[in-house]
């Protein structure tokens, strides 16, 4: 069962990648280590990096809107189209001051992955710089952050320090995954057992891979957060407009068989919560 819970942004675990290193949140080198020039995307009219390593990693997702035909069973959250797996719960994170939806967290068992998407320059990705800033912030607080290679490219495995109930410092494992796309950057932060257990992380990584980013054409500053929205509420008589579009064949093409959120009952709203830990 997928229940949407709405909570305030967890300011103690702020993952907004600002220019400073104070915020806690790929160096995906090409096989040859070389960066190639820009290639014009005739369909979208955007320039995208043709770094072989980066694009090889992204061929299996996450996807740009230009790379899929339609929702394909995904849930429309504005700048992100999200799929799911049975038993997954989704939480929308709302910034208390502005009431803007700033992130979505998929919870599966005792593990979770937080997704946020940001604007990026036409000419280059930003994961290299952001990863360095995250690592510097964590280590400055007494934690550890190690660069490693995962299924989606270079990632960061960290031990995040925090104060335990007895006042002592405790460490929690967190896994930072970043994906540079055409004019966007998607960050996934995995916590819980999945941060250290590959088998526990498998389903959450599938959610990341099947995600579609809708960047839009508007000019945005690099690292500016792309807006999310609350999901469309169902029409008791005929479902949501997206459901009706899918029934009319909007899901033709796409990326293959994508788990449908319809089975997860994503529009069933759970109790309102004020914090997400």
Question: How would you summarize what this structure contains?
Answer:
This protein has helices at 52-58, 127-140, 198-210, 241-250, and strands at residues 3-8, 38-40, 47-49, 63-64, 75-76, 80-82, 89-94, 101-108, 111-119, 144-150, 153-163, 169-181, 184-191, 212-213, 268-269.
Verbal overview:
- There is one protein chain.
- The longest helix has 14 residues, at 127-140.
- Strand 11 and strand 12 (169-181) form a beta hairpin.
- The protein starts with a strand and ends in an 8-residue tail after the last strand.
- It has one domain (3-141, 178-269).
- The protein has helices at 52-58, 127-140, 198-210, 241-250, and strands at residues 3-8, 38-40, 47-49, 63-64, 75-76, 80-82, 89-94, 101-108, 111-119, 144-150, 153-163, 169-181, 184-191, 212-213, 268-269.
- The radius of gyration is 18 Å and the shape is globular.
- It is built from 4 helices and 15 strands.
- The model is unreliable at 1-5, 10-56 and 240-277 (pLDDT under 50).
List keywords for this structure.
single chain, 277 residues, alpha+beta, nine-stranded mixed beta sheet, four-stranded mixed beta sheet, 4 helices, 16% helix
Note the topology.
Elements: E1 3-8, E2 38-40, E3 47-49, H1 52-58, E4 63-64, E5 75-76, E6 80-82, E7 89-94, E8 101-108, E9 111-119, H2 127-140, E10 144-150, E11 153-163, E12 169-181, E13 184-191, H3 198-210, E14 212-213, H4 241-250, E15 268-269
Parallel strand pairs: 1-7, 1-15, 4-14
Antiparallel strand pairs: 2-3, 5-6, 6-14, 7-8, 8-9, 9-13, 10-11, 11-12, 12-13
């Amino acid at each position: 069962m997928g229940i949407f819970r709405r909570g305030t942004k967890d300011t103690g675990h702020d993952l907004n990648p600002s220019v400073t290193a104070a915020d806690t949140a790929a160096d995906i080198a090409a096989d040859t280590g070389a960066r190639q020039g820009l290639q014009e995307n005739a369909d979208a009219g955007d320039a995208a990096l043709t770094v072989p390593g980066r694009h090889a990693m992204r061929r299996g997702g996450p996807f740009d809107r230009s790379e899929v035909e339609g929702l394909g069973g995904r849930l429309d959250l504005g700048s992100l189209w999200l799929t799911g797996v049975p038993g997954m719960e989704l939480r929308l994170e709302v910034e208390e001051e502005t009431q803007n939806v700033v992130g979505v967290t998929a919870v599966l068992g005792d593990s979770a992955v937080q997704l946020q998407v940001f604007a990026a320059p036409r000419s280059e990705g930003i994961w290299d710089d952001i990863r360095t800033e995250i690592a510097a912030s964590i280590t400055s607080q007494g934690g550890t952050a190690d660069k490693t290679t995962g299924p989606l490219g270079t990632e960061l495995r960290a031990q995040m320090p925090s104060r335990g109930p007895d006042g002592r410092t405790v460490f929690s494992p967190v896994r930072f995954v970043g994906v540079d796309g055409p004019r966007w950057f998607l960050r996934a932060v995995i916590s819980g057992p999945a941060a250290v257990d590959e088998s526990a992380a498998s389903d959450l990584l599938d959610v990341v891979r099947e995600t579609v980013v809708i960047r839009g054409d508007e000019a945005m500053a690099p690292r500016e957060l792309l807006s999310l929205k609350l999901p469309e509420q169902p029409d008791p008589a005929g479902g949501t407009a997206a459901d009706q579009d899918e029934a009319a064949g909007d899901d033709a093409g796409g990326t293959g068989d994508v788990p449908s959120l319809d089975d997860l009952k994503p529009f069933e709203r759970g109790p309102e919560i004020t914090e997400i830990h």
